[in-house]
Amino acid sequence: MDDITTLEDVLKLFREIDETYKPDLDKIDEAFVQKLWQEQRFFNTNMETIDRRPIRVLKPGVWNHNEGPDFMHAEIEIDGKLQVGDVEIHVRSSEWYAHKHHLNSRYNRVILHAVFFNDDFNLRTRLQNNKRVSTLELLKWVAVDTGDLYDDSQAPETTDGRCRITGKQLNMEVLKNVFESLGRERFLEKAESIRLLRTRLDFEQLLYEGIMEALGYERNSKAFRELAQHVPFTDLDEKSALEIQATLFGVAGLLPSQREKSFPSEVTNDPNVIALEELWRASEYAELPARMTEARWSFTGRPVNRPTRRIAAMSQLIHACHGSLMMYFLPTCEKAADVDTPKLLRTIEKKLRALLMLEPIGYWETHFDFGTGGARKAALIGDARAVDIIINKILPAAYVWAVEAESQTLQEAILRLYSTGSKSTGNKIIRKIDEQIFTTEAQQMRHLKPTAKIEQGILRLHKNYCADWLCDLCPILEHDAVLPEEG
């Protein structure tokens, strides 16, 4: 079965938007919903409770693994008013009363009842003290990549903790085919996720949010997506590079005048900083209530990954694309339709990376953050991050574009480009699978000559099988990639 047919079959499985949908709740447990809340995997930071109150989660709270509400000390803005308290999580809204929380004073500090699915007619949840709190149905706001919640999960303790592949002799050619097949499935899964997002976003906003999220890495990905939703892509069109920077920095709450610490005069009097501050004060966004603050961002990790530097990168990218991120990348992707050798495909990928790896200009040539120097003209987006954005954001979006354009030629070209894409620098999941499977010198991951497609296949193996110890369904065993033992 080819990739095109596979996607067409997958598309048939999804309901029409106007059909009534009820999830199979037997396959969803409360731990999943708790992690969904903790990770805040929602496609919009501005949500609405079932009684139609606008809600914005500032802090989801501290996960409580003991008795009592699931999350404590949360900070949530409901109907424009800040509330601080606890959050109780359930799969079904009816479980509040089934668990008799309405009779337990321990739950009187609850400010929100967050449920995966609303199966009850009560618009507001009653506490023991007869106060009522809003209920939020998470299903309406869940991002399409919730399966990735399991990427970093620990294996259950119901097994002996040993992989059936560890220490076995492998047929490396078959194993490579297994990973490539899984990698293709993961790509089509990402494409389907984007197709679903297309019901509410155009390609420009979709790519803008996706790239912003990727620039945030693990620590700041949610904050970057939130920023992209606060400042839509269309609002930045026809602005200068400095105006874009001023708008994004200002809404993010990261300009020197907005920060908690005081900056020395040599920073605040820098002509670049003065220009940004003046442009921000003249911006229409400066008149709106503050959306984000410095506390929303993490500044730990490598200096080159500071959120300020990443915002500068996105600002330059938006300015360089002249009003269309899709048309900035798509013509280069389309060139893959005219080539068929791995070498030429890798040349096209290199050109895509160059479109992302912009040289810093102005203040960011020599700064990681306001007042923090030492950048030495380091690229605003490094090679490894560019590869990740191409594989996870640009190529899936280009593929969906080709599907909507009914261009099978371009679809096949995008898949070829994906199949030869460069591997990443790795992550903890890939390293874990490496240690789990490739246990001898004769059998090393490098012998597979890993590509992005193979790495994506490894990630899918972990997410869909290893994370839940579904060893009986392991595709490596199913496709006889393990050689029979001698004797």
Q: How many discrete structural domains?
A: 2
Helix segment tally: 17
User: What's the mean pLDDT score?
Assistant: 86
- Helix-residue proportion: 40-55%
Rg, Å, rounded = 24 Å
Question: In oligomeric terms, what are we looking at?
Answer: single chain
Strand content: 5-15%
Low-pLDDT segments: 10-21, 146-160
Outline? globular
List the helices and strands in order: HHEEEEEHEEEHHHHHHHHHEEHHHHH
Structural class: alpha+beta
Task: State the major sheet.
Answer: 8 strands, mixed
Quote the distance from N terminus to C terminus.
Answer: 37 Å
Description:
This protein is an alpha+beta fold. The chain folds into two domains: 21-142, no CATH class; 198-419, no CATH class. Helix content is 42%, strand content 11%. The protein is built from 17 helices and ten strands. The strands form two sheets. Strands 1, 2, 3, 4, 5, 6, 7 and 8 form an eight-stranded mixed β-sheet that branches. It has a two-stranded antiparallel sheet with strand order 9-10. Strand 9 (367-369) and strand 10 (372-373) form a beta hairpin. Helix 5 runs antiparallel to helix 6, helix 7 runs antiparallel to helix 10 (307-320) and helix 13 packs antiparallel against helix 14 (408-419). The longest helix is centred in the middle third of the chain and has 26 residues, at 172-197. It is globular, with a radius of gyration of 24 Å. The chain starts with a helix and ends in a 9-residue tail after the last helix. Residues 10-21 and 146-160 have low confidence and may be disordered.
